[in-house]
Amino acid sequence: MAVAQSWQRCRTAQFSAQWHASGAVMTVDGELDAANADQLATYVQRNVGRTSRVILDLRGLEFIGTAGFSALHRINVVCSAAQVHWAMAPSEAVSRLLRVCDPDGTLPVTGATDEPLLKAAHRGDDQRPLLQLVT
C-alpha cells in the first residue's frame, strides 16, 4: 500500500510521487523542457530526503529537451549527496536524449531490481509475491 502520494502540475508536465515501504516512485508525464525542468529538479530535491531509494518514472514523457537532461544531472548530484539510490525508467524520448547527451551511461537507468517498486506504484500497492523462484 502506498504510504503517501503528492503531485504538482506545471506547464506541460505533471509530477507525482508515491511512497512505499521499499522506496519512492516519482512519475513525470507530459513534456519536460526549459519552462519546467528546474521545477522537476526542485520537486525531486524537496522529496528525496523522505526515502533511501527513488525511481524516477519518465515513461510518460513525450518530449524532453536538453534542459531536462540538465535537470536529470542535477537530480543525480542531489541524490548522491543525500546518499539516496536512484534510477530512471526512460521513455523513448528520454532514451534518445540519453544516447546523445550521456553516451557513457553515467546516469542510472532502472534494472531488474527496480521492477518490483515500479510495479507496486503502477498497481498502487506494495504487495510482494509470497514465493520467489530462485535459479
From TrEMBL:
InterPro entries: STAS_dom (IPR002645), STAS_dom_sf (IPR036513). Residues 25-72 form the STAS domain. PROSITE patterns: STAS. It comes from the Bacteria. Coiled coil: none annotated. This is Anti-anti-sigma regulatory factor (Antagonist of anti-sigma factor). It comes from Mycobacterium rhizamassiliense. The lineage of its organism: Bacteria, Bacillati, Actinomycetota, Actinomycetes, Mycobacteriales.
